[in-house]
Amino acid sequence: MPVPVISAGSAAARVAQHLALPVAVLGIGAEAPAPFRTLLGDDVPYARPEGVTQTTDLLEPEGGARALACVKRLLANGARVIAFSCTGFSTIGLAPYLRERLGCVVVDAVDASGMFAVEMLGGRAFATADPTLACRDFQT
Fold first, then answer.
1. Secondary structure (H, E, C), the chain
2. For burial by CB atoms within 10 Å, which of 6, 45, 67, 116 has the most?
């Protein structure tokens, strides 16, 4: 039996593409992953928080603050949408924090892949956790 696989990065890139707004990608690698470059263009703005090279770096006390500072730079450079290319940003609850504090549009890779999964299952309703429970205060 075939098992569908949904890539969090591909799902986030596709959602960001359909928003038709200037997108910047936030990740932890050296460059935007291939799905983002394919769907948003090779020149899609990309940034990695200073000192963050693996997901566990985001769990350090300064990890969230560094991610927040990086997002502020991307927005200052014209981005209207921040698309996560790392699921670690979901782990630390960065998306609801950015939406609430900075008022920006955020495409969380885990949320995007979940959205695609729901659609693949015919759009059946699923119970969801309260997204505000994941909010943290990232100090800069």
1. CCCCCCCHHHHHHHHHHHHCCCEEEECCCCCCCHHHHHHHCCCCCEECCCCCCCHHHHHCHHHHHHHHHHHHHHHHCCCCEEEECCCHHHHCCHHHHHHHHHCCEEECHHHHHHHHHHHHCCCCCCCCCCHHHHCCCCCC
2. 67
